[in-house]
Every structure is written in C-alpha cells, then in structure tokens.
Please model this.
Amino acid sequence: MGDYQAREWHPAFEEYCEAVFELREDDVAVIQARIAERLGVSRPAVSEMIKRMETGGLVSVDGNRIELTPAGVQLAERVVRRHRLAERFLTDILGLSWAEAHGEAGKWEHVISDRVEQAIVDVLDHPTTCPHGNPIPGSGYAAPDAVPLRDLGVGRDFTVARIPEELEFAPGILEFLEEADVLPGRHGRITATSDDGTTVVEIDGHHPVDLDAFASARILVTV
Model:
C-alpha cells in the first residue's frame, strides 16, 4: 500500500483509470469502444494504452472486458476523489458553473497534492458528493436507492439524486440541466411523457422542462 501511494503516475494512466472507474460506476460496459468515446481518442490509442496498463498492473483484460486491479482501483479512486472535490470547490467557493467546473477539475485532479486535498476538504466541511450528486470516494457516503427518471409514470413526485458522469460528458447537457434547475435535492413531478422517450417534468413548481430520452434514462431520482 505504501509503495503504491508513493508512486506517481503519468496523467494519461490516471485518466484511463478514472474512465474505467466511472464507466463501471454508471453501469456502462467497460470495453475499449466505450473508453474511446469517453476520452475522445481513437480505438488503436486505447488498445495500446490498455496494454501498457495491463503490464503496469492497473487493469486486467478478459476477452473484451476491462477491469481495474486493486492498484487500479486505488489510483482511480484518488483521481476521482480529487476531481469531485475540485468540482465542489470551484462551484461552491469560486462560483463557476457546472460545465466550467467539470472542465477545470479535469486539470486540477492531476496536480492536487495530499495537503491541498485536505485543505479543500476542510474548507468545504467534508463534502460527500460532487455538485452533481456523485459520491466522493473516501467520504463514507452511502448513496440512497435511486431509479432512472424514465422509470416513473406521469404524476409521480421525485427528488433529483444524481446526474451520472455519462451526462457530464454529453455536450451541452450540464449547462441545460443547471439552467433548468434540475439539480440534486430539487423536487419535481412528471407531468407528461411521449413515445420518443421525452419526459416533461416540473421542478419545484417552476416551468415545465423537457428531458430527452438520453437524459431521462440516466438522471437518477428518489421517490
């Protein structure tokens, strides 16, 4: 454990471990194609990097399935923790938007030291989730039982629990959800659905918000 924690990894290894961790967290099949989509790189580049990570003891490969090893999980959790703490700091303290904070945190996660990490935790009074409701590794957060918004029928009330990482990487969605007030902790009601998968919700009694099939299948809510 001590040797592992003392080792410094190139940011590329951190990003790949983070991608594998978050795909698994969102119940997305962890295969090379999904990693390529998440990171915006070519399939050959992913193939080469996975080979390097397997040699380095960070992942194991079974057929086309990719799993983090214990060392890979530790590295991923460290990076994800710092990313989500950075997002919380950038939104809560500096007032950046969700989308801005997500982009900046992608840079911060590679350079935050142990001392700075602890300082951020103290300033934020030990947060347990990022602004989007995703758990901060190591915080002891126990996620509530949640279901995809699309699984509820018209007239059902709900509370927004989590905006999964998959939506954070979809262009324009973070901006839209923040502007529409579809935020963790907000209460809403489903007022209509359509055959194309669109779900119309009313958040805290405000104007209706149309959520397409992609978003409504992934936004997690409690009832």
About this structure: The domain at 2-73 is CATH 1.10.10.10 (Arc Repressor Mutant, subunit A). Residues 17 and 214 are 25 Å apart (CA to CA).
